[in-house]
């Protein structure tokens, strides 16, 4: 419950829940006898009716249907998301954004994606042979294995190209802004929660939680056992069974008040209860080491690169993309309230939210939003 962000950055890239599921199909194994797929031409882009136009390109209904099918296969909740009014148009806009960025990607990014694509294709093909529901969805939309490969290649290439474009100086600038966020800290804590992390409802009045936290602190100062007391009192499921221990952590992952305590509280001393949105924390910092930029782990630097890349993709989706889209003309959605109609919207409508994550997290919410912030709130257990 301590974390301020959900770091479900699985693998080498920061991805939305949808892409994480998508990538989970690609287990490590080699593919053989693969035929060549046209990497420049989108599936079914020369079939059907044009539903969107943008600078130097267009999207047809057949093409978009296959893209939707691709996502509904890798994440069953995508269909429900896309049924929400306005979401399908947003999804289309983001798809256009990916196509534009894919066309801008250099050979280096495309080569970097080759191994991922090859692995994914083998797994997708195997799944299509054994999963009758998946095969039915593919048949309904016309989606082929080659189509799935093209969509996957597009997404992975865009992410690789975006990450490769992040300069080392940009990454170090994050460290320079708040170097204490990268300290190496070991601490113990016991959380006395006053809200239910799953519902946000009050489970204890603040004054009662503070009183209990002070009582727990007093017990610890008298020599109470952290393991025993954490198990008895702590509401942090992530640490209550190991004496409240968080070992060799970077404070940047924690919510602000907890992070500040980790960086400033006297080492070896049990501090006064610290209030966060989750409750009161009784904290003992056992170790705190400062780190130079050179001492920051490569894994952390990679994560920062991914984060900057995601922000850059979001900026493209929200700031540049709307000016590149000249027409959206989706058919009227079939709803009980027939007010809607085809949206011949222009770049101005719906620009929105495309982006937070858009490019990389292609989707947690609408099923498309890239990282979509995905980001972002971590579940309870490290509040």
From TrEMBL:
Ranges annotated as biased composition (Basic and acidic residues): 373-383
Keywords, alphabetical: Isomerase, Rotamase, Signal
Domain annotation PpiC: ranges: 182-287
Organism of provenance: Paenibacillus cellulosilyticus
Bias (Low complexity) ranges: 353-372
Lineage, opening ranks: Bacteria, Bacillati, Bacillota, Bacilli, Bacillales
Annotated protein name in UniProt: Foldase protein PrsA
Keyword Methyltransferase tagged: no
Superkingdom per UniProt: Bacteria
Region (Disordered): 326-383
């Amino acid at each position: 419950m301590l974390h301020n962000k959900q770091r479900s950055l699985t693998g080498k890239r920061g991805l939305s829940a949808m892409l994480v599921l998508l990538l989970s199909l690609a287990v490590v194994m080699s593919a053989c006898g693969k035929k060549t797929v046209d990497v420049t031409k989108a599936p079914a882009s020369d079939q059907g009716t044009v539903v969107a136009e943008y600078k130097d390109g267009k999207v047809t209904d057949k093409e978009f249907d296959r893209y939707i099918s691709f996502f509904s296969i890798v994440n069953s909740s995508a269909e429900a998301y896309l049924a929400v009014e306005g979401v399908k148009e947003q999804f289309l806009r983001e798809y256009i954004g990916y196509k534009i960025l894919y066309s801008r990607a250099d050979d280096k990014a495309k080569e970097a994606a080759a191994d991922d694509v090859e692995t994914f294709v083998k797994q997708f093909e195997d799944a299509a042979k054994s999963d009758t529901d998946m095969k039915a969805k593919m048949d309904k939309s016309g989606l082929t294995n080659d189509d799935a490969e093209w969509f996957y290649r597009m997404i992975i290439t865009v992410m690789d190209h975006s990450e490769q474009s992040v300069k080392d100086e940009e990454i170090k600038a994050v460290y320079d802004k708040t170097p204490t966020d990268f300290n190496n800290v070991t601490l113990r804590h016991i959380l006395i929660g006053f809200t239910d992390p799953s519902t946000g409802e009050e489970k204890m009045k603040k004054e009662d939680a503070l009183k209990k936290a002070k009582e727990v602190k007093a017990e610890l100062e008298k020599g109470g056992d952290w393991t025993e007391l954490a198990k008895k009192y702590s509401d942090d499921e992530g640490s209550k069974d190991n004496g409240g221990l968080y070992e060799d952590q970077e404070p940047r992952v924690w919510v602000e008040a907890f992070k500040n305590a980790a960086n400033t509280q006297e080492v070896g001393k049990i501090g006064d209860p610290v209030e966060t949105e989750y409750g009161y924390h009784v904290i003992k910092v056992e170790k705190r080491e400062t780190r130079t930029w050179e001492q920051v782990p490569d894994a952390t630097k990679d994560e920062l690169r991914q984060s900057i890349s995601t922000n850059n993709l979001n900026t493209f989706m929200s700031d540049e993309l709307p000016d590149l889209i000249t027409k959206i003309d989706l058919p009227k959605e079939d709803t009980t309230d027939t007010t809607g109609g085809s949206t011949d919207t222009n770049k101005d409508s719906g620009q929105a939210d495309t982006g937070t994550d858009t490019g990389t997290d292609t989707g947690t919410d609408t099923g498309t939003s890239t990282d979509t912030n995905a980001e972002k709130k971590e579940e309870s257990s490290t509040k």
